[in-house]
Amino acid sequence: MDVKSIYFDGVNSWDDLGLLLASASIGYPKKNKARIQIPNSNIYYDYAELFGDLYEERTLEFEFIIARPDAMTIEELEYKRSQIANWLEPGIKHKLSYSEIPFYYFIAEVQGDYEYAEENGYAPLKVKFVCYPYKIHEVDEADDIWDTFEFENDIAQDLTFEVSGTREAKIYNAGTAKVSPKLIVTGNVTVELNGLSESLGAGTHEQTKIVLSRGWNKSKLNGSGTIRFSFSKEVL
Questions:
Q1: Is 74 helix (H, G, I), strand (E, B) or coil?
Q2: Is residue 1 part of a domain?
Q3: Spatial separation of the C-alpha atoms in residues 190 and 209, rounded to whole Å
Q4: Of 99, 133, 167, which closes a domain?
Q5: Where are the beta strands (DSSP E) in the chain?
Q6: Tell me: the pLDDT tens digits for 146-181?
Q7: Which residues, listed in sequence order, are joined to residue 184 by a DSSP beta bridge?
Q8: Which whole-number Å values give the CA distances from 236 to 5, 25, 50, 94, 168, in the listed order?
């Protein structure tokens, strides 16, 4: 039987620390309505039209059980506490995955101090994480992996394009958030998308002006070589 667990900062709560996950609360982020009123009018401008929907951080809460602390020596229990304290150091963001949400992960950090108590035969441990609003798919959208394919939302697509002169490229972002793809280029390729242009030489480019909106994105490519759009979808 699989035991529920989380994986945070390279450590599995059950496999590595023997923490039994008793409960989990996966919160959803609150949407920020970023609007301003145009002076001397009844018209409001919604920044979502420019930046997309804006959300606050989301909260995840987990309660673990350290089984039978009374069966441990004082030294063993203190060592376990030290392991947990080092693992749950506040203020540092790490990748967090939860066994009940396969193929996705969160970018999370511990919120404040964790709550620890000793009771008869067990010790409950409560931990709160604050996270980037979206959960992120573990698989690159260009990788056609059958086990992670979501038939209701995903689309099979080849995201490597050969460029010789000028051509059009269509890229589908199945997520709900705008994403900045990593662009892997051979030769020299210029990308035009949503009114922005980026000229790229051979190599891997992670910081560019190119952003993929939700759904279909129609791009113009010019130059000579190949370009691969590498990204993972982000969903609520």
A1: helix
A2: no
A3: 12
A4: 133
A5: 6-8, 11-12, 19-26, 31-32, 35-37, 44-46, 54-55, 58-67, 94-98, 104-110, 115-116, 122-131, 135-137, 160-173, 182-193, 196-200, 203-205, 215-230, 234-235
A6: 555 565 666 778 899 999 999 999 999 999 999 999
A7: 204, 228
A8: 21, 15, 20, 18, 30
In contact, 62 and 26? CB cutoff 8 Å = no
Look at residue 41 and tell me if it is in a domain.
Answer: yes
CA 173 → CA 176, 212, 234, distances in Å? 8, 7, 9
Per the structure, the complete domain to which residue 187 belongs is given by 146-235
78 and 14 belong to one structural domain = yes
Do 86 and 190 lie in one domain? The reply is: no
pLDDT tens for 171-226 read 999 999 999 999 999 999 999 998 899 999 999 999 999 999 999 999 999 999 99
Residue 54, classified by CB atoms within 10 Å of its CB into exposed (0-12), middle (13-18) or buried (19+), is middle
Longest dimension (CA), the chain: 73
Residues 179, 31: Cα–Cα separation, whole Å = 18
On whether both 101 and 11 belong to a single domain, the answer is yes
Q: Do residues 60 and 105 both lie within one domain?
A: yes
